[in-house]
Amino acid sequence: MSFGSSVPYLGVSQPISEQLPLEADILETERLVSTLHSFNFFEPDEELQKRMEVLRQINSMVKEWIVAVTEAKLGADCGFNPGGKLFTFGSYRLGVHTRGADIDSLCVAPRHVDRSDFFGSFYDMLKRDSNVSDLHSVEEAFVPVIKLKYRDIELDVLFARLAAKQIPDDQQLNDDEILRNLDEKSVRSLNGCRVADEILRLVPNGETFKVTLRAVKLWAKNHGIYSNVLGFLGGVSWAILVARTCQLYPNASPSRLLQKFFLVFQNWNWPHPVILRDNDSERRPNIPSLETLVWDPRTSNSDRYHLMPIITPAYPEQNSTFNVTKSTRQVMTAEFEEGLKISTEVFDGKAGWDKLFEEVNFFSRYRHFIALVCLAKTKEDHLVYCGLVESKIRFLVAAFERNPAVNMVHVNPKQFEPLRPLQVPTDHEDCTVTVWFIGLDLNKQLKKNIDLAKEIQLFGDNVYRATQMNPKMYNDDMKVHPSYVRKSDLEKWLPMETLEKGRKVVAKKPERKSEGRNNRKRKLSDANEEVVAKKTLEPFKESSLWDDIKNAMSSHSEMDTKLSKDLLATLESLTPSEDKMTLKRRQNALRELEQLISEWVVQLNAEKNGAEAVSCSGGRLLTCGSYRLGVQDRGSDIDCLCVVPRFVTREDFFDSFFEILRASTRAADVNRIPEAFVPVIKLKFRGFEIDLLFAQVDLLDLPSGAELEERLMDDALIFNLDMKSVRSLNSLRTSCEIRRLLPNEENFRVTLKAVKLWAKRHSIYSNALGFLGGISWTILVARVCQMHPEASPPRLLDAVFRLMTTWKWPEPILLKEASTTSKCRRLDKFVWNPQANQRDQMHLMPIVTPAYPEQNSAVNVSIFHLKVMLRESFEALEMTKEIVERKAPWSRLFEEVNFFSRYKYFVMIGCTAKTREEHNAFSSLVEAKIRVLMGALMESEQFLLAHVSPQKFDPLRKSWNRFSKNWFIGLEPLRGKKDVSIGDQLLYFNNEVFFWAQKMPCFNQLMALNFEFIPARDLGRLTSAEELKKGRPATRKRKYRGETAISKRHHMEVCA
């Protein structure tokens, strides 16, 4: 084996060390390879020859089948050889396959052969072959596959159709252009081969890479962390990690690389991604249909929630570890730490490599387990059903993680055959059975019995729904039985040799999720010792918490009438309605702006189309948000939508129309944010603040008035639009749909005005900063109005606070039943669907918009934000009770609370720029990124609470040639936490802001951020005494300590 290389460095950074291996390293490598041989991890030559022969035979079958399909479709005299080829990928293609491992392969066919042929005639051809056994297809999988054994060699065969007439024997797959015009399933199938080839191209020494990867795979399998489907890492992810280690230590020996592997990834700063190449530096194909598949957290909300991103190097680059959960990452990080410790002992002569690869006894780690028993009547049914159940286990793990009673969840990837008689009921004693075990570390500090029945029930429902979607494949004899098992009862489930196999470990005690005064040990109640999921499927039902108050709110009493009058008078005194003159000026300003838009569109039509210009009436300006709902405040901004025909592009809007606005004497403070999630131009027009969105629709000429609105409400109109236009249109479509679903608009408007005023006065009104924005509060109020259609505004207001504090978050708030039918495949992926998308399962406070594609409007809410909003809602609920009892006036509820009186410590974020325009752009960026800092503070595990005030404060000392604003974040450290350090979090936030700031057209070196961490007593140095005394001081009641008296359990579920 040779070491050393003169090749320029590979990867996204320079190597950490280019030192050549020492004699001791080479000696340890020989011992490492010898140890791998002792574990039978290398395939004998005769088995390798058999694999190659099997692949040749399957390749011949592929060619024969493609010829038959070609003759059937194009005729026997088509005049060309269609070809066809079988490619390999995965471990086999990387050269690290092991004894008895399956072969990942790909059937590549020409354009006239489609996937239905593959799962039809090719499947039948395999079925007729006597060498084939255990044949079954998984056509509905994310990557459709045929699984089989050919002469006892296991194969997974994928399918891809290229946009080519023939597939020659020398066909290559590394050219990105072959992906053009392919469907997503073909792209995913091709990526297996393309990724494997790219990994081999990006490692400095292929031989050392292969030996190291073999060692890592053996270690991962023996430590129970090798399974992509269960939330750990799969083969390609481990290969990318090893390849990145090879890039960082290009000349190291395999033994040293193995040690460095543990060192690098034990200290890796997740969720920073692992990337093998700088994708921006190389030529990328222009294939718009595939851009949505590229992993990019800058533009995709879902990608931001990935916990352990490991990015494939071939286009379209994707995260190979999107299944990883918090618990599985925690388990793997602990294993990295132990691996580093043992590998260091090996180099110190204190241990041998066999200690690293020794199988770990899973059952010695935990005292509590969930057994998932999978039964089917026949072996074939069992194989199919087990694949389905296994794919759903990670959702059960994620559900357990959200339960405050569970510190950690660890699923064992191994499938066991349980002892007979079975510990679960069965209709057939001779059925085929498999069991998975999930280890649980439970939190005994909670003052309640531990109950996992809800999570188990959801899992059972999830599996059952999947079976109902494909009734031909699944039958009633297939069942899954989850069951709680104590460690002492494991001997009833598995033989003793299995329970005692491997090195026993003592699990470290994880940090407790909640604190309590009573630290006595508690046991699971007898009622909860056995939790078994019932295989039932019930339609979604609203929470029953309203049953006890519906009757009291069904009609308006005389007291309600008096309360309503008082509420209206209070709202009018605090937020006076616009006078008729201002309202008329606002309407005139909107008409003038629409006329400006129409003239611009007509001019563009003439410039772009010349003599062939179509008849065009121009663009349209439509209002949305608060203005359309009729709840705008005096002086509030207007959310508007500029709708244009298809020949007008977004670039036209942000270039030529932006310049028209800047040149207009009627417009001021014009600022464009084209890179925002919903691109916008912010301006003042005739003195009124306007947020102007843009939507291009697939029409040549736009109708006017109600006809246009009716067209825009048709879902089919948005099917061919880009996603930014869809998001912009949805602001209008959602507002219209909410109004349509209301039982009483007048009561809704009064209640919504009250809720918005209360939220603003209590510093919890800001979608950008992670609280609820206007649309989320609107949907909440609308849902309460639906629940109590006859209730008066005071009763509705009380019900809003009850909903906030007693709702079983993260159950969703929905205004109408979610659609289960597919409308547009391209847009369906954006629909909020926690059963299909793991990212949606992680949302803490789903408030779903009613217009297609239905999305979570509260996606930015974190644990800190949720705790703050629940605290404020709890206090508001108590206040409304006093108001109803005539112990306090309505003004008390809307009284501004002094933000600075709530907390003992604060972080100040100062934002500075030279000009007003630059400051507006820079401060908008900083505001959008503050929730990144909030997330970093939460991850630091130093604080019980962090609360950012949405208000921007003027600095105490202003600079005559600078524009500055400050934000403040109130901090409540964990009990007993005296020394807190947030330097790393602030540095991360600073880097994140300036990474994006440098992409702004107006960016310059005079834009600056400054931070200060100060106790409350020193706030006078940073802001005025007037601000520090503004509002009533906050009172922290002993009754509220992270849970509500109304629904302590539900609150703890989301806040622990």
TrEMBL record:
Residues 11-203, 557-741 form the Poly(A) polymerase nucleotidyltransferase domain. It holds the Pfam family PAP_NTPase. Residues 208-359, 747-896 form the Poly(A) polymerase central domain. InterPro entries: NT_sf (IPR043519), NuclTrfase_I-like_C (IPR011068), PolA_pol_cen_dom (IPR007012), PolA_pol_NTPase (IPR048840), PolA_pol_RNA-bd_dom (IPR007010). Its cofactor is Mn(2+); Mg(2+). Residues 361-417, 427-500, 898-954 form the Poly(A) polymerase RNA-binding domain. It is an enzyme of class 2 (transferase). GO terms for biological process: mRNA processing; RNA 3'-end processing. It is found in: Nucleus. It catalyses: RNA(n) + ATP = RNA(n)-3'-adenine ribonucleotide + diphosphate. The keyword NADP does not apply. GO terms for molecular function: ATP binding; metal ion binding; poly(A) RNA polymerase activity; RNA binding. Its main location: nucleus. Its EC number is 2.7.7.19. The keyword Ligase does not apply. GO terms for cellular component: nucleus. CDD domains: NT_PAP_TUTase (cd05402). Keywords: ATP-binding, Magnesium, Metal-binding, mRNA processing, Nucleotide-binding, Nucleus, Transferase. Residues 504-529 are annotated as: Disordered. SUPFAM superfamilies: Nucleotidyltransferase (SSF81301), PAP/Archaeal CCA-adding enzyme, C-terminal domain (SSF55003), PAP/OAS1 substrate-binding domain (SSF81631). Residues 504-518 have a biased composition (Basic and acidic residues). PANTHER family: POLY A POLYMERASE, POLYNUCLEOTIDE ADENYLYLTRANSFERASE. Belongs to the poly(A) polymerase family. This is polynucleotide adenylyltransferase. It comes from Steinernema hermaphroditum.
